[in-house]
Amino acid sequence: MQGYNVKQFKMPRWDQLPKMGLYLDQVIMLIDDWMSDYVEVSGSMLTHTMVNNYVKQKIVRAPVNRRYDRRSIASLIVVSIVKPAFPIGDIAKLIRRALEGGNAEASYNDFCEMMEDALKQVFFLNGQAEENNLPEIRTLGQGITREDRDLFINVARTCASQFYVRSVYLEKEADALSGFDGE
Predict the structure, then answer these.
(1) Dihedral sign computed on CA atoms, order 33, 118, 160, 52
(2) How many Å apart are CA 77 and CA 92, to the nearest integer?
(3) Dihedral class, residue 58 (left if φ above 0, else alpha if ψ from -120 to 50, else beta)
């Protein structure tokens, strides 16, 4: 698949995110560097304006002394992945719902596992996985109900499907363009 390396897709877990606050330029560079390992992007996944809008909409916490904390960085990673599949208003609701239990670390790590599992299912099992064969999520954030878990798994599957459709489309488009001789 041209431009996509989902076989190796591994989201950074909470404990791999910077412990110290980062300036906006550093956050954008960190997320772009991480995503560029897996997805071919033209330009940046995030811009200053986008992040500032997410802060204004209270999707991401405001920086303290112009530095974004670990929770804000995790939220921006989630937004970067989910944004192609969902409108920003829905993403805000999903993030708020995931954080209702109060354990941002567990919620973020759960999302990472769900996203990785969903990508494996969509790309490598071609949608043939049965519900009882789905990998079990090892942790559930405090206060996360079975209903919320199912909701978040389906969000991850939707994003994975979005990646899949884009990769197939891009691959076919690239093949078609390479065969075009301009006559």
Answers:
(1) negative
(2) 13
(3) left
CB 22 within 8 A of CB 70: no
DSSP three-state, residue 31: helix
15 secondary structure, DSSP code: G
Three-class SS state of 32: helix
Q: Is pLDDT larger for residue 11 or for residue 164? A: 11
Phi/psi at 4 (nearest 5 deg)? -130, 135
Question: Phi-psi category of 127—alpha, beta or left, where left has phi over 0 and alpha has psi -120 to 50?
Answer: left
- If you write DSSP's letter for every residue of 151-166 in order, what string do you get? HHHHHHHHHHHHHHHH
- Residue 178 pLDDT class (50, 70, 90 cuts): low
pLDDT digits (tens, 9 = 90+) for 159-170: 777 766 666 555
For 122, other C-beta atoms within 10 Å of its C-beta total: 23
User: Which tens digit of pLDDT belongs to each residue from 80-94?
Assistant: 888 888 889 888 988
Distance, in Å, from the CA atom of 62 to the CA atom of 59, rounded to the nearest integer, reads: 9
DSSP string across 106-129: HHHHHHHHHHHHHHHHHHHSTT--
Banded model confidence at residue 130, pLDDT cuts 50, 70, 90: very low
Rg (CA), the chain: 17
**pTM confidence score:** 0.73
What sign for the dihedral angle of Cα 170, 175, 180, 181?
A: positive
